[in-house]
Amino acid sequence: MKKKILFVVTSHDKKGNTGEDTGYYLGEVSHPWEVLHKAGYEIDFVSPKGGTPPVDGFDLKDPVNKEFWENKEYKNKIDHSLQPSQVNPNHYSAIFYAGGHGAMWDFADNTELADIASKVYENGGIVAAVCHGPAGLVNIKLNNGKYLVDGKKINAFTNEEEAEVQLTNVVPFLLEDQLKERGAQFEKSERWQNHVVSDHRVITGQNPQSAKSVGEAILKELNQ
Questions:
Q1: For the segment 19-60, what is each residue's pLDDT rounded down to a tens digit?
Q2: Which of 3, 31, 89, 178 could connect to 119 by a Cys-Cys bridge, CB 3.0–4.6 Å?
Q3: Residues in CB range of 224: below 8 A, 6 or more apart
Q4: Which residues are catalytic?
């Protein structure tokens, strides 16, 4: 099987009714991409609506962001992201949900994406996410009827971090609370610290600062 990883990015471009733009957070795509791409993995992109997803955190002073953005092949791939119906889960050894606030609006209730992720996992693959990306994990159920995160050590963008960016009352739910409700053993560090948890092929990172480390944790798990 070709070494392939599926990156999930949001199609949602507004923070609630604030009028502020959002989308996938560029560094949360580029930093894991760099680690996995250099290790020889091919990466595909899927978004709830397919096509060109909105981008946030657009900082080309970050050399890794710049490298990703100027890579013609991958810029073309992300700008023509697949629709969930076009994805065959059997082709991927891992699925990774990138963050960006948009994910809070269109990841959790997307049953097609949840189905893809559960199949990747049941096939022995890895499910990973960073920052707001774990919104995609809250409703994934396995064949045994249990939630994927139930009983596993998980982290994600914390209530404290959401409060600091003043979006506690804007996001449709608080990610930390929702994951705990699903049975996750939620772990966290202080705000904006790199924190990654790996538990039974589920890898989660707390915030943008954790993005590269999530990529490294995925690679380590793939190499085992």
A1: 999 999 999 999 999 999 999 999 999 999 999 999 999 999
A2: 89
A3: none
A4: 131-132, 164
Residue pair 138/182 in contact by the 8 Å Cβ criterion: yes
Rounded distance between C-alpha atoms, residue 148 and residue 113, angstroms:
13
| Residues in contact with 183: Cβ distance below 8 Å, sequence separation at least 6, in sequence order | 146, 147, 149, 150, 151
Residue 55, strand partner residues: 24
Fill in the amino acid letter for 79.
D
Q: 79-133 pLDDT, tens per residue?
A: 999 999 999 999 999 999 999 999 999 999 999 999 999 999 999 999 999 999 9
**Residue range of the domain that includes 96:** 4-222
For position 155, which CATH number holds?
3.40.50.880
Number of domains in the chain: 1
- The verdict on pTM exceeding 0.90 is yes
Q: Are 96 and 198 in contact (CB under 8 A)?
A: no
**Two tokens, residue 107:** 């990841």
Whether the CB-CB separation of 159 and 177 falls below 8 Å is answered with yes
Cα-only R_g, the chain: 16
